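Continuing the batch. This is chain 6 of the set; chains 1 through 5 are on the previous pages. Same settings as before, nothing changed between runs. Recording input and output for traceability.
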Amino acid sequence: MRIPLDYYRILGVPTKATTAQITQAYRDRVAQLPRREHSDLAIQARSNIIEQAYQVLSQTDKRAVYDNDFLDKTYQLESQSRLRLPFQSNEIEAADEAETSSPAIAIEQIDFLGGILLLLELGEYELVLKLVPPYLKSKINLVKQDLFGAAEVVKTELILCLSLAYLELSREQWQQGRYEAAANSGLEGQTLLADAGIFPGLRGEIQGDLDRLRPYQVLELLALPESEVDNRRKGLRLLQLMLDARGGIDGAGDDQSGLSMDDFLRFIQQLRSYLTVREQQTLFVAESKRPSAVSTYLAVYALLAGGFAERQPELIVQAKDKLLRLGKRQDVHLEQAICALLLGQTEEANQALELSQEYEAIAYIRENSQDAPDLLPGLCLYGERWLKTEVFSHFRDLSGESISLTDYFANEQVQQYLENLSGGSPAPETNKDWSATNGEPAKPFTQARLQPVADLSVSRPKTMRTTVPAPSPTPTPTMATPSKIVARPTTPAPTPSPAAGTHRNVASLAPSKLPAKKVSKKKTKSSPKSRRKGFPLKGILFALGFLLILVGVIRAIAAIVGGGNTIEDPLHVYISTEPPIAIPVVEVVEEPSSTDEGFNEAIAEVVIQNWLDSKALAFGEDHDTSGLSAVLTEPLLSTWLNGARDVEAAGNYRAYEHGLTIDGFAFDEENPDEASVQAIVKENASYYLADGSLDAGRSYDSTLTVRYDLVRLDGQWLIKNSQVIN
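Output for chain 6:
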């Protein structure tokens, strides 16, 4: 019989190899053994073919005859390839046709298994899948004729070769970014072994690949168009299997994917942009019942988005109820304020803002609520932008939708519901005082402050916008998300399994070892008008409409006069950080060196002081933002650059006076490029308007305890995040 191989490939030598090279290659090939699962019959047949190749190529006369036939066959194949018409099929052909489509050698029928084994070793997986099935299925196959005298051994060997071909083909497809095809190939091989009841170890190896492949498979399926209903449902089922195995998004279980808890949170954030608002509601509302703090917060986003986009305030009531439970451990007062605003509960909205520790957001809201009896004008502006950039952007069916509070409140269905809500019995738990959420607040889940991680890219279909890394030869994925990730849960991280321990944690965070100092919290005093108990719905709608119209007029005037945006934006709206003209570089105090390249209090003080000095220059009269990039990195850099430019566009500036005391720091030698610093910052800010007059309403003198998260890039410590603790 003939098999599509040539002697040069069998020995792994070029056609111009010397006799000495051929002899050495022969010895190497004989010494190399295939996988231990292969039978002695197949291994002996392999050795016979290798010996046959050596006997031909090592003897000059035999080699000359073979070369003549081999080169003639190769030339014919090249000619046929050049003459192939573009519309000719490249589909898999029958086994007998495959034998004549490439150079072939004649072997004894008893050595057929050895030929298949060599094709596997040479990476001809698809060719193996063509050649083997006819011998298993045909009525005249080798197994049924028992030509080898060991029919069961031959059948087992052929099934093994098929399964290994599927396994290796699956890994090739994984490398190519064809994740669903890779999963299907692996499953084919596993099914063959399971049906035959053989090689449980190999079945487990294939299952391990399928488990590690599953996150990529989920992303590829969910990224398909919404018309691909069945495939998208399959993606959701696979995701649910992962969630059940882990015990939820922030569970400590092991789904065998190799993803750590942090990596899995990034994976969840990554796939959200491929889910519709209804899909996210179904998924995260169910997951929040485990219970799960992260799932609860994501459910809040899904309910808020659906309630606003579909004009269903009852969904916002559900979101508000879930925030009450989260508020026992997290500072979610800002989100509660937005919910209350969308439900027409203005007093509760103002109360929530007074309790919020979101320093930058509250400063933005206050700045845009000047001369108003309460903070509603600024909250309206902030709420619109927050819904646009932090909520709608995470839903595939809402990312391009416009946001208008005026249109929302003008909707008859919304008006009717809010009238019933304000006039009848309050919804469950929605009439509770915001101050009921006691306890020391932890870092909030607000997505405007979530951490960025690096993209992981590989070629993928055009429908895929997410990036996933190309796996190593034995695929081992490390998942990451787009620019923002879900905040870390309060539950302890699981102990990694031996399998998961080999995967790189893409963005591990410095451990929190800082003592939390309690500082008395200053509350903003509301005007007596903001304490009123009952705002008629029509009055609310009129006030909101007037405020939004007023804001539009202010924006238009500012655009004409200053050519820029008058709003100091604390949200992460990323724009270019390059200045339009060359500007001088701010002199930054050199960081003290450390002999062991570690981190100490002196370095912490210099980094934070450089930040405070650069902030004063950026918001000062000269608006010199050049120093920010020397002390900040994303996401904090874009936030402060945008804020400084907005103040400059309005023609205003701030004069800062700072006092700094380092209160503690955390540094882990096992993670030497990340650190955390807790500092007491005394900040006196004088806000000056374009005409040079002092705006006392926006000036302040405060003492805050702030936590800074630092990262070392190219040997320089930069601040990537900050959080006001007290």
